[in-house]
Amino acid sequence: xxxxxxxxxxxxxxxxxxxxxxxxxxxxxxxxxxxxxxxxxxxxxxxxxxxxxxxxxxxxxxxxxxxxxxxxxxxxxxxxxxxxxxxxxxxxxxxxxxxxxxxxxxxxxxxxxxxxxxxxxxxxxxxxxxxxxxxxxxxx
Length: 140
Known about the structure:
globular; alpha/beta; five-stranded parallel beta sheet; 17% strand
């Protein structure tokens, strides 16, 4: 399914207030996948401009950060829909619970298995529907 040497352009939610290090844990997981090439944009260092949304391939919402800035999630969802950019929702680490309204606004929702995260990114960016639930139980 994955294109060799494709560099995925990912916009990821990132917050200064991240007491359980959701962002760092996500980075660990995605960076553990050596064959996956990506360029990262994050919500701390990038303005959510039209130009940015014309450039990126996918938006990653880390649900563990939702409570600290729900307005950011709302803006990301709105802009993603406006620019037809798929949304991947990643559950809070160690939790299966996820807000139903966020899950319904996302194109896919996964847990922390790095293979599932990468598979969902590749599937959504390649224009395919996400059909499988992937991991609801954490795997290392």
